[in-house]
Amino acid sequence: MKFNTNSNVYIVVYSTVMVVVVAAVLAVAALSLQSRQYANELNEKKQSILASLVAEDRNYDEFIEARVLNAAGEQIEGADVFTLLNDLPAAFADGKFPLFEAADGRVVIPVTGSGLWGPIWGYVALEKDMDTISGIIMAHKGETPGLGAEIATPKYQQKFIGKQLFEGDEFVSVTLRKGGAKDPAHEVDAISGGTKTSDGVTAMLRESLKNYLPLLESRRAAQRAEAGEVSNVENVADNE
Amino acid sequence: MSSKNLKYLTGPFSVNNPVIVQILGICSALAVTVQLKPAIVMALSVTVVTGFANLVMSLLRNGVPSRIRIIVQLVVIAALVILVDQVLKAYVYEVSKQLSVYVGLIITNCIVMGRVEAFALGNKPWPAFLDGLGNGLGYGIILIVVAFFRELFGSGSLLGYPVVPESWYAANGGWYSNCGLMLFPPMALIIVGAIIWVHRSRNKDLQEK
Questions:
Q1: Residues of B in contact with A10 (CB under 8 A)
Q2: Using beta carbons and an 8 Å cutoff, which residues of A are at the interface with B?
């Protein structure tokens, strides 16, 4: 039997069958690979968090406790941290701020912003004093290789270690300065030829970390109070 | 494998190369050749897609209504590309992130549709499959050669491993500095041009009179 392969009926039936078959194949493939892909993404996020703490050899589940804060720095229940990380700008706009607490007292704050060509994001790990950067991981969607993309290299990220977010009580964040850092406590060399990306990183750090100020400040105040008590006791002892 | 079939496979490596003779697939050759590793994965991905797109279309060739054949080709190619993308995301996540949109853009790679339209619709499945593989590999060879030079001179590394000694660099008191221009797409075009030059000067019958 020979069909007329150019009749309208044949074309309609042919394309319908084709679309249904292709859709079925793709659906099966997507579903069967989904759990693996999700595991990859989750694992990547966990590794980034550990890497920002320079603790790649630690077990994430034992070392890190994830929580979600509101704008006042109070913990909110019932929000999945990793779902929020998938769209961090939306989570920030929604007043939900994921935070990762390491068992040794350090915290990791996710940050997000825009580079020259697309989104940039990262994780900033702070020391116990809630001021000093203990490590940073940054990634990007499509910054220029060799220029803006340098932000994703360990060599560049190393420059942030030891920088401080606060000048006294004032939040000043960390700035990437074109022409080289002048203030060793709060500035990092910008990338030559990657000025727009560097500006994007500066803005990303300032805007994202700002959201966590209530928490950072309350913890700093608590630490100061503790330190203050100790020194008062010492003073009293001296007086006697 | 008969010698005729073998020719379908190996022809596109040199005298019938899709990139340097037919000047197809240039766009992605510029985009993914900054480093060697994504170029290799891209080459394999395109080879899989061209091979199987040719195979599937050759199997369907007698039933495809000629009036909608281009649409059918696109559906088959797009489905294959999505499959490749999903597999890469599941098994080589890091590389799939580096390739990002370019895997999806295999759909628009002229080589795939060109071979389906020009070869698979008029030939039996086995030769069509070989022709597809050959063209994918021919594209891949050029990609890898270009990426080799761009990564070597642009980043001083190969497959991510540094090959230029650290002490050579100006920052460490040496005399060497990476060529930043290599990292930009125009340099890929110039390297492709240089390959075409060398290739034509060695294959006289490719030269226009």
A1: 65
A2: 3, 5-6, 10-11, 14-15, 18-19, 22, 25-26, 29-30, 33, 36-37, 40-41, 44, 141-142, 144-147, 193
Nearest to B67 among A3, A11, A26 (CB): A11
Give the DSSP H or E segment for A100: strand A97-102
Per CB-CB distance under 8 Å, the chain B contacts of A19 are 75
Taking CB atoms and an 8 Å cutoff, what residues of chain A touch B100? 141-142
> Shortest Cα distance from B63 to chain A (angstroms)?
7
Give the tens place of pLDDT for each residue, A143-157. Answer: 887 788 889 888 899
- Pairwise CA distance, residues B138 & B23, whole Å: 12
pLDDT of residue A240: 46
> Closest residue of A to B80, CA-based?
A26
Q: Identify which of B27, B54, B43 has the alpha carbon closest to the alpha carbon of residue B117.
A: B54
The residues spanned by each domain of chain B are 18-206
Residue A8 class from Cβ within 10 Å (0-12 exposed, 13-18 middle, 19+ buried)?
A: exposed
pLDDT digits (tens, 9 = 90+) for A157-180: 999 999 999 888 888 888 998 888
Q: What's the rounded Cα separation, in Å, for the pair A133 and A170? A: 16
pLDDT digits (tens, 9 = 90+) for B99-128: 767 788 888 888 888 888 888 888 899 999
**How far lies B47's CA from each of A56, B27, B60, B88, B100, in Å?**
36, 16, 20, 14, 18
In angstroms, the CA B23 to CA B98 distance is 25
Contact B131, B123 (CB under 8 A): yes
Mean pLDDT of B52-59: 92
Exposed/middle/buried for A191, CB within 10 Å: 0-12, 13-18, 19+? buried
Distance CA A203, CA A174 (A): 9
- The answer to whether B82 contacts A15, with C-beta atoms less than 8 Å apart, is no
Contact A26/B82, CB-based, under 8 Å?
yes
Name A177's bridge partners: A189
Domain coordinates in residue numbering, chain A: 51-228
Between B85 and A239, residue with greater pLDDT: B85
**A145, B34: Cβ pair inside 8 Å?**
yes
**DSSP letter string, A212-228:** THHHHHHHHHHHHHHHH
- B183–A147 C-beta distance less than 8 A: yes
Find the mean pLDDT for residues B121-147: 90
